[in-house]
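Example 3.
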Amino acid sequence: MPQPSTPRKTLGRPPRISREEVVETARRIVAEEGVDRLTMRRLATEIGSTPMALYHHVRNKEELLVLLLDDYAARTLRRPELPAHPRERIVVAAAAIHEALAACPWIVEVLTADDLMSTSALWFVEQIVDGLVECGLPPERAVHGYRAIWYYTAGEIVVRATAARRRTDDDRATYREQVFADLDPDELPRLAQVADSWAPLTAEDTYLDGLRALVDGLARGRLRC
Amino acid sequence: MPQPSTPRKTLGRPPRISREEVVETARRIVAEEGVDRLTMRRLATEIGSTPMALYHHVRNKEELLVLLLDDYAARTLRRPELPAHPRERIVVAAAAIHEALAACPWIVEVLTADDLMSTSALWFVEQIVDGLVECGLPPERAVHGYRAIWYYTAGEIVVRATAARRRTDDDRATYREQVFADLDPDELPRLAQVADSWAPLTAEDTYLDGLRALVDGLARGRLRC
DNA sequence: GCTAGTTTCTTTACGTGTATAAAAATTCAC
DNA sequence: GTGAATTTTTATACACGTAAAGAAACTAGC
């Protein structure tokens, strides 16, 4: 009988910093000065250590950002009142996730995560999948439907955030104007027709409209709903 | 009468490299060795110049990648036969864009462009907008509909490409398995129900299903279609 | 107490994108 | 021709993420 009781202290040199401390300090830097100022060196000095020491607590900077996203989700995601009607329930759950993520655009670099797998987001995923099942989809199709909603949601945030970033660099906007000004109304009549209003139209926030359309389409032709 | 005829040669030191040469060489490097090997220094030596000289022909590396994407689109996008039925036309046009982009995953880093504004992609945009108008949407709603389709399409590609990239790093997959194994079936019954099949389900390519649902939803309740 | 094993931390170094400043190569005004 | 203006190219330098090697601080077995 080897080690029955004695919990035997951990082996090796005792750590002076913890993963929690790393994430918490990173969170503070981002909150106070923006994500651009979060560098491994800066984080290390802030924490009183050296850059490479961090790498014993997070695999790399990308993992650190994922941890920050999880942390952010755990802090700010609040479960909303959900309507009884399943289709509307899906919309409310997805919109809640969207709202939380859109409010923190620095997250974009990580947002391309495969799924939102922070445990605090799982409840929302459950609601969406469950709503789709209640709409009459078999469970596998419901998962596919959730994925479609996630693609749409993540895509909206990433595209809009990148557009906003590029708008400060500007000049790409000018290029787009040029493209629209040079449109041949014979070859591309619809685009020529909306050319002038393209910029304001694409600036509008129509996430909810698109989401409703997608959910309607997913639930269409099903028994219930 | 100042300069009436004489076209007067361009001022300043004559360039030794051109933007076209930069883009073309970059394209070759990416084609032959992958996007990871495309660095400004490598590109410069390949072209017989110095890194900073490139910055007189492209604003920065991101713009270079955008130019590469435009170039790729111009080369590979072929206009498919379009069905007469407007809804199916939209699906075919969007799927063609999706297929071209999905085939070149290195593009992901740029894909978050505001729109696909390469001139060779505009014809597809026209088809989608026009299809939506034919479905009975007013032009503004049609533009919004196109945007929704673009969000969905870009999101799908970005999410899947990132997932693939992380899968080589692995270990995030393991974490996800852990999350699903620890699910409380009382609190999250649907997820617990599909926990085992989550990975294979999310690996399936269901882009077309989601696209059809979205287009159906966008066109729903309209006069025509 | 000593040595081996194990973990964490530090040092050093490399390759990256690109800012900045200076040099080089040309045209234009006279 | 000479000097100013203008454009492109080069040289140098910085901050970044992180790989690699080894030093430091601890426990376990003897």
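Chain B is about 65% helix and 0% strand. Chain B has a mean pLDDT of 89.
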